[in-house]
Amino acid sequence: MSAVFGTVVAGDSVYVLGQIIIKFIIEPILEFRHLLGRFTQFFLRNQGEMISAEGSESTENELFVLASELL
Description:
Layout lengths: L1 H44 L1 H6 L4 H14 L1
Helix pairs in contact: 1-3
């Protein structure tokens, strides 16, 4: 009975440790990379407005939203 209990505890420990690594390390990294992709898309899409310094209010608001998500 002791060997079975040890196996179950070890299996549960590995599962919990794996979930902790996924939730606190891997998911934030993936979310950050996704946000960097959205920044890149924004700047490429609006580079004409930014170079000519004639940005619209909607462009400014979208940049503020992206910056707040980054923070």
